[in-house]
Amino acid sequence: MKQPLKASVLVFTAAWTVAAAVPSAIAIRDAHVVTVSGADLPKATVLVRDGLIQDVGPNLSIPGDAWVIDGSGLTVYPGFIDALSTWGLPGAAATPARTAAGVAPTPAPPAAPVPATPATGIEPPPRHGPEDRPQNHSFERAADMVTPSDTRLAAARAAGFTTAATFPNQGIFEGLGAMIDLAGERGRDMIVAQPIGQQILFRTSGFGRSGFPNSLMGNIAYVRQLFLDLNHYKEAQQLYAAHPSGSRRPQYDHDLEGLAESPRLLLPADEEQQIDRILNFGRELKQPFVLYGLHEAFERVDELKQARVPAIVSLKWPEKPKDSDPAEIPDYRQLRIRRDAPGVPGLLAKAGVEFAFYSDGVDAAPDLKKALKKAVDAGLSRADAIRALTLSPARIYGLDDRLGSIEKGKIANLVVMKGDAFDDKTTVEYVFIDGAQFEPSKDLQKPPANKEGGPKPAEGDIN
């Protein structure tokens, strides 16, 4: 009779192990399984083979080549998904620029490139778009920048996260995002899907020699103009494709191609009045869009319900600034936002608005759990909280055919916990990413993959 595999035996390193070292089949037997897409299974087996969920249910026949984990006392959830992050992009780690409000000061522009000289014949570096399109990085791809060496990944896995929608963090048009797994031997191994969207972040302190745009309305006008340019660009391309003979071909536009590739826009909408404005603006652009931020949505739930627009709620709940004057009396509005913001997810769930969570710079595992629990304590049901971490972000990005629930054929991204996800004493025992296993207690103690002193791929055959 096959014996349950001891935890000490089933340990994989934080590095993505080579295919020969990963068991072809793993069975988590007799666990409580939260499928999310259907009813919970109080005593069931999840069978994983070749990185996919082969089957799930009670009384499954376990193949002879499967490694077995005794799931007694354990709960299996779909791997958690961060719906908007910079995870996997160490150079784009969340900064004060990426705020829940989506409005941020603009960093100083880079020094102008040195012009070419007849003596050297060296051409200057390419510009990031024409001078009339400052802070436009619409063509940058997160998929080209992702690396497993990001030191934040182990902490994310320790909180139960297996997957993230990750975006560059630069400019107003920040670049094309990618859905990534939070482990891999190389960056390209981590990509689940790309591009998944274009994030817009309004920056209000001016940039470039002219300082345009230097206000929220200026930002909106700037974005509007680029989409007018995009529509004209598409029309010109279509006309040329239909009648190329005798027609002058349209000029290739790097910036607009990046916008054209995006299946959806992520628009910032945190403040109460900003939500109204951005809902109208999104409709005007005639592009699929998602709102992010939403801390002040407690007064705009009906509008969001009527708009049928998905929402991504920041887990960075408003708090009193640490460096504030103790004698200063905050105004009522700020006090109300701090009090009511964690209740927004519960209100959205009751209204039937599709929403997910994003970390917004909350990277440490204990802080992520604390932030999630704050929403639950403010009225969000535990079932809706799990959905907002799993199936909802997958649906928002059109990837629910492969992520977000425990179903046959989906990617084997799983988190195994001892206890309920939101209980204080619950621990994450195992995380599976593409069927490869991680133990957070050991994962956090190791240097990141591909770093000196970090874990190496396992050698030999473990079967």
How would you describe what is shown here?
This protein is an alpha/beta fold and 463 residues long. The chain has 2 domains: 1-79 and 404-463, Urease, subunit C, domain 1; 81-110 and 128-401, Metal-dependent hydrolases (TIM Barrel, Alpha-Beta Barrel). Helices cover 24% and strands 21% of the residues. It contains 11 helices and 20 strands. Strands 1, 2, 3, 4, 5, 18, 19 and 20 form an 8-stranded mixed β-sheet that branches. A 6-stranded mixed β-sheet has the order 9-12-14-15-16-17. Strand 2 (41-49) and strand 3 (52-57) form a beta hairpin. Helix 2 packs across helix 3. It is globular. The model is unreliable at 1-20, 95-101, 106-130 and 450-463 (pLDDT under 50).
Write the layout of secondary structure elements.
Blueprint (H helix, E strand, L loop, with lengths): L24 E9 L7 E9 L2 E6 L9 E4 L4 E4 L1 E6 L17 E2 L47 H7 L2 E6 L6 E4 L1 E4 L9 E3 L4 E3 L1 E2 L12 H27 L11 H8 L3 E5 L2 H14 L3 E5 L7 H7 L3 E4 L17 H9 L3 H8 L3 E4 L6 H13 L4 H8 L1 H6 L17 E5 L8 E7 L2 E3 L1 H4 L20
Parallel strand pairs: 1-4, 1-5, 6-8, 7-13, 12-14, 14-15, 15-16, 16-17
Antiparallel strand pairs: 1-2, 2-3, 5-18, 8-10, 9-12, 10-11, 18-19, 19-20
